[in-house]
Specification:
Blueprint: E1 20-25, E2 32-37, H1 38-43, E3 50-51, E4 56-59, E5 63-69, E6 75-78, E7 81-83, E8 102-104, E9 108-114, E10 117-122
Parallel strand pairs: 7-8
Antiparallel strand pairs: 1-2, 3-4, 4-5, 5-6, 8-9, 9-10
Length: about 130
Amino acid sequence: MADKKVSQLTSLTTPASEDLLLIIDDPNGTPASKRITLKNLFASVPANTDIKGSKLTVRGVHTATANLNLTKTTTMNVAVVTFGSTPATNNATTESMSVGQLRFTNTHLYIAVNSTTIKRVALSTF
């Protein structure tokens, strides 16, 4: 294996949490090759993480935003969902809600359907 380039290694399409990755510790100081499991790598990613290359944003436990690029020409946007107060108006711009953003309270689900309109749905026990 010492004579192979990384690009020549077999691809892994279904990694497990205990699989190992090569990591270079302190690359700008005294670089050292080390290993880390996928589980430990993702456990060390702090809340409020923004991964710009894949357009993934995570803010605490109440808000999450993600864009999934399906092809080079198709992007699927996943809405922001926030627990919050009842909007004072039905205007998305006034309420600082972007199109597709969802907000919920104990009684309603609010959806910004365009830049000027918020629609709501009453919640009920089933």
